[in-house]
User: Fold this.
Amino acid sequence: MTMLDGLSILNSLPLAALEVGKHWYWEIGNLKLHGQVFLASWFVIVLLVIASLAAKPKQGQMVPGGMQNFMEYVLEFLRDLAKNQLGEKHYRQWLPFIGTLFLFIFVSNWSGALIPWKLITIPEGELAAPTNDINTTVALALLTSLAYFYAGLSKKGLGYFANYIQPIPILLPIKILEDFTKPLSLSFRLFGNILADELVVGVLVFLVPLLVPLPLMALGLFTSAIQALVFATLAGAYIHEAIESEEEEEHG
Amino acid sequence: MNPTVAAASVIAAALAVGLAAIGPGIGQGNASGQAVAGIARQPEAEGKIRGTLLLTLAFMESLTIYGLVISLVLLFANPFA
Assistant:
């Protein structure tokens, strides 16, 4: 942040303050947690739980309406997403995981842009989308890694590791490297996109506070929705890669 | 921070973003051009082409974002400071 201090001279209207690298630390034992990220993610989780509870059908109502209708649309969208990646046969088992990933990332990304977090001041750091902290995205990416290992091992047992020498054994180092690059690229893509979006909007608000940042904010909503879709799609693709076998090439 | 390290970091950050923008820029241009050609040949496939195009654009964009992450690290979390 020291390098951007010169910019704050320009900032006569306190509409935005960029606080990169400052966190509100919660210390639990020896662990230092980024408190603002936890608060924002709990908010997102509560939002999702409320939305799910509101989707409950009303007593004696035959035709779905309102919130229930909307949530059913969301469910159908998620089901199609999972079905496209995993195929008719396996998608049901992995729908909860992929759907949760998509919903959490999507609502997190949009919360960063749509909710006026700046109105709430906390002792240090600032509230923002939970996904603009690299720890969140790394955790999500590692969960994806665990999921596809679990999928492969539970489907094929230890025979899953035969995949590593499948076409020819000389590819073994590359296949092992792949297991590290998958979570790395997943986490960096999401983190970079969200942080870049918030930084660009933040810097623009420094320089031209009114109206000019608006189109970029709208573009940010679009790209962050795409990023949630990409993350969920890739998670599905990785899981499918782990569970697919030669004899069932029927899906397409 | 040592002024030489600071100056080098800023230049390196700028170069990281700038260079990382070249490749994906060309790639995205190619992809969009091909997509437009595809739509012109087969207007009824527009929906499918658009969906695929958006996904691939997001992937290409992430390459630039990696460069951006490097430059953000150099600016805000410099390991040599």
